[in-house]
Amino acid sequence: MDNIRTAGIVIIGDEVLSSKTVDTNSAFFAKYCFELGVELKRIEIIADDEAEIVEAVTRMSSKYDFVVTSGGIGPTHDDITYPSIAKAFGNDLVYHDTTLERMKKLSTRAINWDQPSDHPEVIARKRMALFPTPSEVVFPSEKLWVPIVIAGGNVHILPGIPRLFTGLLSEYRSHIVDKIDPAMKQTRILVATQMPESAISQFLGDLQKRVDDKGVKIGSYPKGIGMGVMVSLLGRDVPFLESLVPEVEKELDGKRV
């Protein structure tokens, strides 16, 4: 993985699609990318289905620089992310010895590793160290046995448990920051107004046309019924963004927040 400019994330899990689990990982990843200066282009939620995973991962890997998957790497029968991604890239599945060693040492869910190797519990636990190979295995946190497995050069396979997902990505920041152009980082300026969207739509549309060539994106977001609108100015040229604020405040009878 060379320079990182774009990203995509695939949330994998029937439990999310069935509303049993609320996805928070994509929101964390969106903020993570914004703070790094990486443009998040796509968020997808898909089922625990091999064909769905293969299609989504293959497509995103070819389109975006930095791809993350969340979920489906546990010990049960429906945790099929590792084998599905191995299939996507034509990889074998091989036990990763270092991960197995860390699992035995650091796992909070202790099991009897002296049981026969064909014991169901041992087999289930070891499945979590059966990775697409070849791949890159990175341990961002010394406190966690779970690694980030990088398949296909840019697909980063992470657990779905939010504590692990956020912890691993936070520690992984130092591994990728040098691959991100600081000039790509965006700034967001917010202006609040009590005017309804219908009253400001013409001005915002005209403003967007004027600033297109500067790479600025204008957005409007209602805060709730009768609570006004938040207008967003998003771009990389901070002095230019600042120059727009007085005009926007005046036209919207608003105030920067």
Number of helices: 9
**Amino-to-carboxy terminus distance:** 38 Å
Number of domains: 2
Give a short account of the largest sheet.
6 strands, mixed
User: What pattern of helices and strands is seen along the backbone?
Assistant: EHHEHEHEHHEEEEHEHEEHE
Which structural class matches the secondary elements? Answer: alpha/beta
Q: How many beta strands in the DSSP annotation? A: 12
| CATH class membership of the largest domain | Alpha Beta
Based on Cα principal axes, name the global outline. Answer: elongated
CATH superfamily of the largest domain: MoaB/Mog-like domain
Within the largest sheet, what's the order of strands?
Answer: 2-1-3-8-7-6
Any overview of this molecule?
There is one protein chain. The chain is an alpha/beta fold. The protein has 2 domains: 6-182, 3-Layer(aba) Sandwich (Molybdenum Cofactor Biosythetic Enzyme, Chain A), CATH 3.40.980.10; 186-256, Alpha-Beta Plaits (2-Layer Sandwich), CATH 3.30.70. The chain contains 9 helices and 12 strands. The strands form 3 sheets. Strands 2-1-3-8-7-6 form a 6-stranded mixed β-sheet, sandwiched between helices. It has a 4-stranded antiparallel β-sheet with strand order 10-11-9-12, covered by helices on one side. A two-stranded antiparallel ribbon has the order 4-5. Strand 7 and strand 8 (155-158) form a beta hairpin. The model has no long low-confidence stretch (mean pLDDT 95).
